[in-house]
C-alpha cells in the first residue's frame, strides 16, 4: 500500500478516536447522571369535583392502600378517552364486585393538553368519585414517558398498570397480566413486570402495512435488539403491569420522557435483572395516533442509540443502584 494512503488512514483513525473522546467528554460534562424530576406545585394535587376541594397526591414511597392503580397518559385525547375509560371502568367495577378484596384507582394524566381532555376526565371523576378516578393535570407537555412517570409517582396501588388512552388493548387482558405478574412476584415488595405484547400479531400487521412502514418497523426492532433490549419482542405496547417495588425503582431512574421511554424502562429492568414476562394481548389499531411514521421512528431510533451510549460511557447512571448501595 502506498505510504501516502497509510498515512491518510492513520490520520483518519486518529481523528475518529479524537471525535469519540470529544463526544464522551461532552456527554460526561453536559449530562446529569441521574434524572431531575421536576414537579410544579399545582401538579402535586388533584381536584375532587364533588367537594370542589384540592387534595394532595400520595407518593410512590408510601405503603400501598389499593390493589391496582391504572395510569392513563393523555395528550389531546378528548375524542378517544371516553371509550377507553368506559371499557376500563366497567371492567374494574365488575371485578371489584366479584372480588371483595379488589379495589382500584384510575389516574388520567393530561400531558399539557390543549383540548378538553381534563374536563372530559373530570366528568368521570365526578361520576365515579375521586377515590376511583383522579386527574393529574401537567402544566406543560413532558412527553408520554414523563406523563406516565408522574402518574406512577402519584399512585396508591400494589400493582401499577399503564394503559394507552386510545383503548387499543382490550382492557380485560389485565387479568392475563395479573396472573403472569403473580407468578413472578407474590407480593408488592417483590419485583416483576408483565408486558403486554403484540408480537403474535406481527404477521397480520405486516400484511396490512405498507412496504415502507414494514421496513421502518423491522429497522426499529433491529435497533432495539442491538442497543437496548434483547429479552422482549414488543417493547412498545402501551399495556404494562408493575409491582409497586419495581415501579418505584424504574420510574425514579427513568431519563427519557418521550416515545422511547418504554425501551429505557425495559433496558433498566434487564440491567437490574428484574423478572419479566411477555403476555400476548388483544390489540386493535385505533385512528388518531400522535405518531408520524418516519419522523417518530427516526426520533426513537436516535434516542435508542443515545440511551445505549450514555449508559455505556457512564453519563447516565441507575438511581435504583445508587440507592441500594447507600
UniProtKB/TrEMBL annotation:
GO cellular component assignments? endoplasmic reticulum membrane
Q: What is its EC number?
A: 2.4.1.117
Q: In which pathway does it act?
A: Protein modification; protein glycosylation
Which residue numbers delimit the Glycosyltransferase 2-like domain?
Answer: 69-172
| Recorded catalytic activity of this chain's protein | a di-trans,poly-cis-dolichyl phosphate + UDP-alpha-D-glucose = a di-trans,poly-cis-dolichyl beta-D-glucosyl phosphate + UDP
Q: How does it sit in the membrane?
A: Single-pass membrane protein
Gene Ontology molecular function terms on file: dolichyl-phosphate beta-glucosyltransferase activity
One GO biological-process annotation of the entry reads: protein N-linked glycosylation
Q: What is its main location?
A: endoplasmic reticulum
Question: Which of UniProt's keywords are assigned here?
Answer: Endoplasmic reticulum, Glycosyltransferase, Membrane, Signal-anchor, Transferase, Transmembrane, Transmembrane helix
Broad EC category: transferase
Tell me which InterPro entries the record gives.
DPG_synthase, Glyco_trans_2-like, Nucleotide-diphossugar_trans
**Which Pfam families does the record associate with it?**
Glycos_transf_2
Record-annotated membrane-spanning stretches: 6-29
- What subcellular locations does the record give? Endoplasmic reticulum membrane
What PANTHER family does the record tag this protein with? DOLICHYL-PHOSPHATE BETA-GLUCOSYLTRANSFERASE (PTHR10859:SF91), GLYCOSYL TRANSFERASE (PTHR10859)
Q: Which family does it belong to?
A: Belongs to the glycosyltransferase 2 family.
**Listed name of the protein:** Dolichyl-phosphate beta-glucosyltransferase
The upper taxonomy is: Eukaryota, Metazoa, Ecdysozoa, Arthropoda, Hexapoda
